[in-house]
Amino acid sequence: MGLTAQSSGVNLLRESFNIDGDKNNPVVALAGNPNTGKSTVFNGLTGLKQHTGNWPGKTVTQAKGYYTYLSQEYTVVDLPGTYSLLASSIEEQIARDFICFAQPEVTVVIADATNLERNLNLLLQVTELSERVVLCLNLMDEAERKNIKIDLNGLATDLQVPIVPTIARDEKGLSDLKKVIDKIVNQEVQLDPIKIKYSSKIEEKVEKIVPELNKQFPNLRKNINIRWLALRLLEGDRTIFETLEECYDVNLKNKKVVERRQ
Ligand SMILES: Nc1nc2c(ncn2[C@@H]2O[C@H](COP(=O)(O)OP(=O)(O)OP(=O)(O)O)[C@@H](O)[C@H]2O)c(=O)[nH]1
Ligand SMILES: [Mg+2]
């Protein structure tokens, strides 16, 4: 059986993000820098089967929609455009929290093929949070026009993520994207994207914090990536506390694991 929300127990959290947890559809999140064609991909995938509203409690528009592939219905969520997931803006916080807590079965990072370097920064942040990632290289027509050649096989090998080139405006490549998403959901591809290794000073601290977090919050490990959480704590990111308290009713502020680094 493929990945389902039921098997990972996140239905309730999905509902709190206004995503129908009861439907048990695999959820596909579309992430990407602003203006890379996320909404064009979203429209191409979902056609008229879409709703827009606001993210709960936020004045940021949420678009969700549906498509069916090989008799399986998927829910697609168009995340706000962001350059990073460092939660320094509401948009970044929404994108980060959704990937971290609603745990989409697949996150598609939509990148502008003419500006790969900047766009890959977000991809590397997403792969720190989730292994189930596809890189959608959009605007391939623009890249060709600018005579930019991309070694797709070399890039896929370096990043260890599936890559799908698209021209979303002409609906080119979107059926390949659906096929790759289906393979990930049905666990037909091995996924082990590259992870950033930090300086030994940081890695040593992470090594100390991870077991401490596992000990103090044994249930958290099932739901979120503890290495990622340790990195956020080291960074002093306060916004993660708010979301943890909202989603899990845990209070990290009073725990010694945080006090130690102050
Ligand atoms: N040439 C070309 N243009 C594209 C392609 N995909 C999207 N566009 C155009 O790029 C512009 C931005 O597309 P959107 O889909 O709005 O991008 P977005 O990522 O949703 O933008 P934000 O939501 O503002 O972050 C639009 O004018 C699209 O028509 C493509 O593959 N090739
Ligand atoms: Mg958009």
Molecular structure report:
With 262 residues, the chain is an alpha/beta fold. The chain folds into 2 domains: 5-185, Rossmann fold (3-Layer(aba) Sandwich), CATH 3.40.50.300; 200-259, no CATH class. It is 45% helix and 16% strand. The chain is built from 13 helices and 7 strands. The protein has helices at 5-8, 11-16, 38-46, 90-102, 116-129, 140-145, 152-159, 174-185, 200-216, 220-223, 226-235, 239-248, 256-259; strands at 27-32, 50-54, 61-69, 72-78, 106-112, 133-138, 163-165. Strands 2-3-4-1-5-6-7 form a 7-stranded mixed β-sheet, with helices on both faces. Helix 9 crosses helix 11 (226-235). It is globular, with a radius of gyration of 18 Å. Residues 256-262 have low confidence and may be disordered. Bound molecules: guanosine-5'-triphosphate (GTP) and magnesium ion. Residues 32, 34-40, 81, 138-139, 141-142, 167-169 line the site of guanosine-5'-triphosphate (GTP).
